[in-house]
Amino acid sequence: MLYLRLARLVVHLLYGMLVCAVIFPWIGTEGRNGHIRRWSRQLLKMCNVTVEMAPGSSQPLVHAMIVANHVSWLDIFVIDALYPCRFVAKAEIRSWPLAGWLVDKAGTVFIARGNRRDLRHIFKGLVASLQAGERVAFFPEGTTAAQGTLLPFHANLFEAAIDAEVMVQPFALSYVDDAGKLHPSVDFIGDMTFAQSVVAILGGKPVRARLHCLPAMPAAGAHRRELAQAAHDAVAGALGVQNAAAA
């Protein structure tokens, strides 16, 4: 059964790559977002993941910078299944088998650690995208963290929202089992590879991905560290974890 589910997943990834290569160059943002939403929902279904909005969630903004805690490679597809975004992600994701190429062609912007020149170039692109009305998302922890913890938020990219004068909307992500407890198969941390994580999820119990959309915050005139800390506090409160200072 596991091998069959893996085979179906590979076929779905290949189909997504075909769509990105053949169809995406000829359609606009709205059309691409429709494909991304449907494809992400199908991927999650294959992984036995259902997505639900947390009670009390705020209305998600169409035009905003989205910031979320980072648990797993599933995070991108959970958000895209509901509200497709242009993501900013670490450069290592590009090397993931099949999925790395796919998220690249879907518009993900990759950042290499320690490359200040690259960061400045990407920063200008993010400001332009936000000013053009796109929904941009990134994970300010900079890496994945085990559920039940929340790392400090790096403040650098919050400056793009300040310069573009757009709202920042925090999202809180969690993954639970049928009993409502944090799911043990979703954490993607340490030396675990992408392939190992996929096998753990496919071979584990059903997953309920819970997305909590939090109230948006105005970025115009704010300081990036204060904005990062406010977003961190909001996510920490939604997840029920201890606060920490922004980096």
TrEMBL record:
Give an example GO biological process: phosphatidic acid biosynthetic process
Q: Where are the transmembrane segments?
A: 6-28
- Which parts of the sequence belong to the Phospholipid/glycerol acyltransferase domain? 64-176
Q: Which InterPro entries match?
A: Plipid/glycerol_acylTrfase
Q: In which pathway does it act?
A: Lipid metabolism
Keyword annotations? Acyltransferase, Lipid biosynthesis, Lipid metabolism, Membrane, Transferase, Transmembrane, Transmembrane helix
Pfam families associated with the record? Acyltransferase (PF01553)
A single Gene Ontology MF term assigned here is: 1-acylglycerol-3-phosphate O-acyltransferase activity
Under what name is this protein listed? 1-acyl-sn-glycerol-3-phosphate acyltransferase
